[in-house]
């Protein structure tokens, strides 16, 4: 209990003493608007691609379940086309992720 008290006091003192360092004004740098907007657009692109991917996958699974329920004998062929469709749908999100990573890390718009 005593050790915990000392650790908490040390953390409190470290926080209080480090506050002036964190309150300093940021260094003057090149404020390029393209970098900020490219990050915002990349986030929106990934969000839209993920949302569309999720909706498309849910519709594909629902359609596959209903078709297997109507015709249980065709379950193998339905399963193949379901997996193929899910792979193609997921590739949308993966391609968007690759484009987002390219524009944010590899070649940002400076």
Description of the molecule:
The chain has 110 residues and is mainly α. Helix content is 83%, strand content 0%. It has 3 helices and no strands. α2 (33-70) runs antiparallel to α3 (75-106). The chain is elongated.
The end-to-end span amounts to 53 Å
Helix content: over 70%
Instruction: Examine the secondary-structure arrangement and name the CATH architecture.
Output: Up-down Bundle
Q: Provide the CATH top-level class.
A: Mainly Alpha
CATH superfamily membership, which one? Answer: F1F0 ATP synthase subunit C
| Average predicted confidence as pLDDT | 84
- At the fold tier of CATH, the topology name is F1FO ATP Synthase
Hey, roughly how much beta strand do the residues contain?
under 5%
Biggest sheet, in brief? none
What gyration radius follows from the Cα positions, in whole Å? 26 Å
Can you tell me the residue ranges where pLDDT is under 50 for at least 5 consecutive residues?
Answer: none
Class derived from helix and strand content:
mainly alpha
C-alpha geometry? elongated
Q: H/E element string? A: HHH
Return the domain count. Answer: 1
Number of strands: 0
So how many helices?
Answer: 3
Quick rundown:
The protein is mainly alpha-helical and 110 residues long.
Key words describing this protein structure:
110 residues; mainly alpha; F1FO ATP Synthase; 3 helices; elongated
Secondary structure blueprint with pairings:
Elements: H1 2-22, H2 33-70, H3 75-106
Helix pairs in contact: 2-3
């Amino acid at each position: 209990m005593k050790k915990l008290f000392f650790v908490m006091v040390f953390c409190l003192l470290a926080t209080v003493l480090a506050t002036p360092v964190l309150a300093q004004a940021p260094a003057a740098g090149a404020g390029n608007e393209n970098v900020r907007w490219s990050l915002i657009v990349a986030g929106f692109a990934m969000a839209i691609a993920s949302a569309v991917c999720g909706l498309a996958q849910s519709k594909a699974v629902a359609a596959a379940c209903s078709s297997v329920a109507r015709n249980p004998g065709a379950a193998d062929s339905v399963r193949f086309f379901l997996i193929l469709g899910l792979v193609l749908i997921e590739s949308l999100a993966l391609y968007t992720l690759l484009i987002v990573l390219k524009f944010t890390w590899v070649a940002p718009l400076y």
